[in-house]
Predict the structure.
Amino acid sequence: MVDDTQKNRPFLFLVLLVLAVAFLSPILIVLMNSFKGKFFINDAPFKLPTGDIYVGLENYTSGIQKIGFFSAFGMSLFITVLSVAAIVFFTSMTGWFLTRVKTKWSSALFFMFVFSMVVPFQMVMFTMTKTANVLGLDNPVGILLIYLGFGSGLSVFLFSGFVKSIPLEIEEAVMIDGGGPIEMFFRVILPILKPIAITVAILNVMWVWNDYLLPYLVIGTEYQTIPIAVQYLKGGYGSIDMGAMMAMLVLAIIPIIIFYLICQKYIIEGVVAGAVKG
């Protein structure tokens, strides 16, 4: 008798193949059009870059020069790395504390973090912009604190869920041996949190790196990240250098793809443990 799983395998493979094509096709189209002349992108967007259509690396070199790509890349890298590092470091401790310390105040604080996940950014963006200006946070260093605030809700929720799966006996053994809370967290808890920490890092890296609205509202055009710099390829009267824009989009997504491929094995493990266990 054929197992139901074996019978459904061809159908499952077909569904996954269709989904893979649906998700990968936009990236392939952008990559393909990045090697075309800008006048051919609108006329033949799905045609392979061959013959007169192919312009080599011209779009890449012109795009890099027009928007100051490497400067924008450095700014995006600075904001992303430090923001995500702060989010992972502080929310991991917060999630552990709120899970282990059972008081009405810790419960209320946890629900405040969860509630922040459902508040649309559009509701607070104008107030946030004014507050950032008054407090002097409208600079590349100040925006790190803002990203920490907006990224804390989901991160604390995932860390708290994962901590519930850690046996309490491990922490009790450290306390019996004379270890304090700080030593316990950094020597015992933090290594155990590695899967969910990498998951939180991946989710926040993709968010911060690709974010356009928050940097534009807080630090404006004085300190340009890649999403802001790419917008400068739009000329007057609605004209857009599509070739250079496609090329810059390809360069912008390469670091995220590399980072995701390196860390992808931790995503499912971390998300499932952080959202289901406990």
In short: Confidence is low (pLDDT under 50) at residues 274-278. The chain has one domain: 66-275. The radius of gyration is 23 Å. The chain has 14 helices and no strands.
